[in-house]
Amino acid sequence: MSDQTIIRFEQVTKQYDDQTTVLSNVSFEIEKGKFYTLLGPSGCGKTTILRLIAGFIEPSQGQILFNGKVINRIPPNERQVNTVFQDYALFPHLNVFENVAFGLRIKKLKNAAITAKVKEALRFVNLEGYESRNISEMSGGQRQRVAIARAIVNEPEVILLDEPLSALDLKLRTEMQYELRELQRRLGITFIFVTHDQEEALAMSDEIFVLNQGKIEQSGTPNDIYDEPINRFVADFIGESNIVAGRMKQDFEVEFTGRTFECVDQGLNRNEPVEIMIRPEDLEITKPEQGKLKVRVDSQLFRGVHYEISCYDEAGNEWLVHSTKKASVGEQIGLYFDPEAIHVMRFGETEEEFDKRLDAYSEGQDEN
After folding, report:
1. Can you give the pTM of this predicted structure?
2. Domain-wise residue ranges, the chain
3. I need a labelling partner for 255 at 20 to 30 A (CA). Which of 144, 182, 346, 363 fits?
């Protein structure tokens, strides 16, 4: 555990009384001053992790450490953690000032200290002058800021955010993504954010944990997760992708759709069955004779910044293409892609095995 580690899960499992396992032997570390996102579908365990960190529930097995000390049985009010809930959990009968001051009054701080801390928290979230405003008079974005001010006023070391943007409309949600990220940078404290929205996770995070069925499938930077997904689940969940069956011929050569292509992957067995992933934006439309694949256009939708084109090759594989070029339904076109666009995924590979294979490739590139 490094000096920067603030939270550490050691083989944590959570089961409920009906023997339902929502987390299974999960281990990870959270470092100070970073923006983390727990990403995954409903029921994957991400909110359970948040509740375990907050102290609302206890693990069935394993240990949770905060700054090197086990906190399994430490009550929520004694942890240096504050939570921003999905519905914000604001008190409708209190004005903005009293909502933010609530935790400070419980601590029995003097009025002068409370006033100074509340004003400073509201300044951080750009709500100066709103102290007397009723919560019912606030917009969704303003309520969000009040909830964050109430969280930061107690000067926690970690802020937990449980899908706090899900109730906002698309435009406001996008604005709040920028505001939350900027606020985290200014505060310099750890944010742990829960969402099922992959675009939100990619836009805001320093590091992402992708969860599925109570386990962490993969963790890494947004670029790592998007460009180097470990398996079909991660590739499908993070962005759109084309995935077809293939076979590794040898290092830097893979076969799919009946042809052998140059790739950048190595460290897999010869003739090993694999899955091939190519992102839609990495496919370039060309004339049929110039493409690495020949396909026929099945449908086309205009998405504003690009056309979304669905097409099929002769083997019946569907290929999704994002392109600024327009194509005609029924037209035969070619698809060109670079070797770097081909991502080879091994069946059943663990994240540790994947990292070793990726490191081996990186070392080989450095030597070249």
Report:
1. 0.87
2. 5-227, 241-367
3. 363
